[in-house]
């Protein structure tokens, strides 16, 4: 099968390689990558045989919107656009209307796997019509991990791929996935901090490594924390600053809109906001209030304790 792939960054480049290893032809385009096979979207469309499938793997927001709009003006009825970035699901619904007016199919694909996906495969959550998903299925099969086996050796169908519903369902599913990811990382981080804070624990990395087998909290994220601690046992080389890609925010927004209690994921999102503050205005106010009502000591700007007169 032929695939046009727009975006050959860390994810897109590895995805192209995995698809090629499965025996498919990939024609890649990226304005900034030397790995590109063509130099324009027009050339990309011209290099593909109809009916075409073009996968967009560029940053969410304006970059994705402009790329989809331009492709919709170049493709023909029967072709399919796949958005594999981290777009908001409401953008998918707008793009679907645009494409349907031109007879072009549209599929949204939430993709998880990061830089490890080339070897391990990618988990895929897709939205679209059955017919449009079927047109892309050989590519999904090339990207997804092999089906795992249960304890008895039986295959576990469905692991690593789901047709979640109509357009928008794929990215909505990925949004919730990333919200859960925020909370898991926050829990591991808090556990690490408590272990490191007490003199009783002499081998913090060893404790975390011990959790990777036989425990109910083992996971790939935990394995990655072990890897990070192997490289930097006290995490001295990095700042405690964490950005958010937007999906954690969207998850919390949807929780509010649908009256779903989500305190853990919300707290993990707010913790990322806190990480970006050199000195928290909130905690300044808290310290000032404690000083006002109880005469509790506060830290001055020059690290000198200030006592409130009795």
TrEMBL record:
What GO annotations for molecular function exist for this entry? Answer: NADP binding; phosphogluconate dehydrogenase (decarboxylating) activity
Q: Where does the 6-phosphogluconate dehydrogenase C-terminal domain lie?
A: 170-305
Q: Name one Pfam family in it.
A: NAD_binding_2
Any GO BP annotation: organic acid catabolic process
This protein's name: 6-phosphogluconate dehydrogenase (Decarboxylating)
Q: What's the family?
A: Belongs to the 6-phosphogluconate dehydrogenase family.
Matching InterPro entries: 3-OH-isobutyrate_DH-rel_CS (IPR002204), 6-PGluconate_DH-like_C_sf (IPR008927), 6DGDH_YqeC (IPR004849), 6PGD_dom2 (IPR013328), 6PGDH_C (IPR006114), 6PGDH_NADP-bd (IPR006115), 6PGdom_BS (IPR006184), NAD(P)-bd_dom_sf (IPR036291)
Keyword annotations for this protein, in alphabetical order, are: Gluconate utilization, Oxidoreductase
């Amino acid at each position: 099968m032929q695939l046009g792939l727009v975006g050959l960054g860390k994810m897109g480049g590895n995805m192209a390689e995995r698809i090629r290893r499965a025996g498919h032809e990939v024609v890649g385009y990226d304005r900034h990558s030397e790995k590109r096979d063509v130099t324009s979207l027009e050339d990309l469309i011209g290099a593909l045989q109809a009916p075409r499938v073009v996968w967009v793997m560029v940053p969410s927001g304006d970059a994705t919107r402009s790329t989809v709009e331009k492709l919709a003006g170049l493709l023909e009825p029967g072709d399919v656009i796949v958005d594999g970035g981290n777009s908001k699901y409401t953008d998918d619904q707008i793009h679907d209307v645009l494409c349907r007016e031109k007879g072009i199919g549209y599929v949204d694909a939430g993709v998880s796997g990061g830089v490890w996906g080339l070897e391990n495969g990618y988990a895929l959550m897709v939205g679209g019509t059955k017919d449009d998903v079927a047109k892309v299925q050989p590519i999904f099969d090339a990207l997804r991990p092999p089906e795992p086996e249960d304890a008895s050796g039986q295959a576990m169908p469905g692991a690593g791929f789901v047709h979640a519903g109509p357009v928008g369902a794929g990215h909505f599913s990925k949004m919730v996935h990333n919200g859960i990811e925020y909370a898991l990382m926050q829990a591991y981080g808090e556990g690490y901090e408590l272990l490191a804070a007490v003199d009783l624990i002499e081998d913090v990395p060893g404790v975390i490594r011990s959790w990777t087998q036989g425990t109910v909290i083992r996971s790939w994220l935990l394995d990655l924390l072990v890897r990070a601690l192997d490289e930097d046992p006290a995490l001295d080389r990095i700042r405690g600053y964490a950005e958010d890609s937007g999906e954690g925010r969207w998850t919390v927004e949807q929780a509010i809109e649908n009256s779903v209690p989500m305190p853990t994921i919300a707290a993990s999102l707010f913790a990322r906001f806190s990480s970006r503050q050199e000195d928290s205005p909130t905690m300044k106010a808290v310290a000032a209030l404690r000083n006002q009502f109880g005469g509790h000591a506060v830290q001055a700007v020059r690290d000198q304790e200030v006592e409130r007169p009795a």
